[in-house]
């Protein structure tokens, strides 16, 4: 009996607490959404499973010499995992639509309004003492970057500024990215008329191979000189794109956009999941993060649409305002949503390639915004 008692007292079942049970149910929910609903499965499955392991009592997998803690220490405080993913995304990105219509850079820039508007709002709510909204400048900046709809960027900024909030911010960022098809269309329809949604845009010009090859070089150098804090993100993004466009390192480009990004995604998800322990996640602040995150994302979507409408007032070449919503950097889902809503208004209106311009510009914009936030709050 003494041996059995000792065995029982050493089990996780004896030590488990209600908060850990709740967080395990949340992680099961993330895995369910990934498998059954297709919501960002590449990230939500590793995050959900990592969260399950992090909440198993006594195992200590997210502490000390635990495997999840070791993976976290290697990849997130150093920023290695998000940067490698940015390199892989760069190797998958075609800047052609943006270069063919440079005005779409303005749409990508406008969509970052959600980030800075939410930053100011979070600081204001904190100053007013609203329950659950007690955020420092570093925490507010980490929450605001959710508005860029870019998971790796959110993780990169949060790991630098507010690592204690990494779990809820990562879950919010990837959840809202997955919910783009549900969140964006109502905002797009509310801000545009059916006539505006039916605008047919002219065919994009051909972009030469030289233009595509020179652009990442110029992008990396200019951003690094003007905003050094954004250089790591933009630099790795541009490097990955150069591998794609230069035409002489196909093996490296293929590795960056396939094998490497897949391996890093696994470890990034597990590392984020390690921060979903009950003691780190179950706070009133988590609710505030989720609420401010959706405000930031919705604000970015609305700002992109409104900027497109303003540009139409000032230019003869009409832009379908729907592509402004693609200014957030949820690539390519936001562009697909713009195309879908455009087809509802006009079955002959194909906006996908036009929307990819602001969508790619949004990736650059969110990286630049991250650099600004790191400079302000770091």
Describe the structure.
There is one protein chain. This protein has 378 residues and is mainly alpha-helical. It has one domain (13-56, 67-377). The chain is 73% helix and 0% strand. Helix 6 (80-92) runs antiparallel to helix 11, helix 8 packs antiparallel against helix 19 (284-314) and helix 11 (151-161) packs parallel to helix 21. The longest helix is centred in the last third of the chain and has 31 residues, at 284-314. It is globular, with a radius of gyration of 22 Å.
The tally of domains stands at 1
Briefly note the structural class of the backbone. mainly alpha
Q: What characteristic shape results from the CA principal axes?
A: globular
Low-confidence stretches: none
Helical segment count: 21
Question: Summary?
Answer:
The chain is mostly helical and 378 residues long.
Features:
single chain, 378 residues, globular, mainly alpha
Which secondary structure elements does this structure contain, and how are they paired or packed?
Elements: H1 2-9, H2 12-15, H3 18-36, H4 41-54, H5 67-75, H6 80-92, H7 96-100, H8 104-110, H9 113-128, H10 137-144, H11 151-161, H12 166-178, H13 180-191, H14 194-197, H15 209-226, H16 231-246, H17 250-273, H18 278-281, H19 284-314, H20 333-345, H21 352-377
């Amino acid at each position: 009996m003494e041996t059995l008692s000792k065995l029982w007292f050493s089990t996780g079942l004896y030590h488990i607490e209600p908060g850990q049970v709740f967080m395990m149910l949340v992680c099961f929910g993330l895995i369910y959404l990934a498998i059954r609903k297709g919501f960002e499965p590449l990230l939500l499955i590793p995050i959900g499973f990592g969260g399950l392991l992090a909440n198993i009592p006594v195992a200590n997998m997210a502490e000390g010499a635990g495997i999840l803690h070791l993976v976290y220490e290697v990849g997130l405080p150093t920023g290695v995992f998000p940067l490698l993913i940015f390199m892989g995304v760069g190797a998958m990105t075609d800047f052609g639509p943006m270069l063919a219509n440079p005005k779409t850079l303005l749409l990508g820039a406008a969509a970052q309004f959600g980030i800075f508007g939410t930053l100011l709002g979070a600081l204001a709510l904190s100053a007013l003492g609203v329950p659950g909204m007690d955020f420092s400048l570093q925490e507010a900046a980490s929450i605001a970057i959710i508005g860029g709809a870019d998971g790796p960027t959110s993780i990169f900024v949060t790991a630098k500024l507010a690592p204690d909030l990494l779990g809820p911010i990562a879950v919010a960022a990837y959840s809202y990215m997955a919910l783009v098809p549900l969140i964006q269309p109502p905002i797009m329809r509310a801000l545009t008329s059916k006539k505006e949604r039916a605008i047919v845009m002219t065919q994009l010009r051909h972009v030469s191979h030289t233009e595509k090859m020179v652009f990442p070089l110029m992008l990396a150098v200019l951003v690094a000189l003007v905003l050094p804090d954004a250089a790591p993100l933009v630099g790795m993004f541009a490097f990955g794109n150069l591998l794609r466009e230069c035409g002489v390192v196909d093996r490296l480009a293929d590795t960056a956009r396939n094998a490497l990004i897949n391996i890093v995604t696994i470890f990034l998800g597990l590392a984020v999941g390690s921060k979903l322990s009950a003691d780190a996640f179950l706070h009133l602040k988590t609710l505030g993060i989720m609420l401010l995150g959706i405000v930031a994302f919705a604000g970015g979507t609305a700002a992109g649409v409104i900027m497109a409408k303003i540009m139409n007032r000032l230019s003869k070449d009409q832009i379908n305002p729907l592509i402004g919503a693609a200014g957030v950097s949820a690539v390519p889902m936001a562009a697909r949503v713009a195309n879908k809503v455009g087809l509802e208004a006009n079955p002959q209106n194909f906006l996908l390639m036009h929307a990819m311009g602001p969508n790619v510009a949004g990736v650059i914009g969110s990286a630049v915004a991250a650099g600004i936030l790191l400079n302000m709050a770091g």
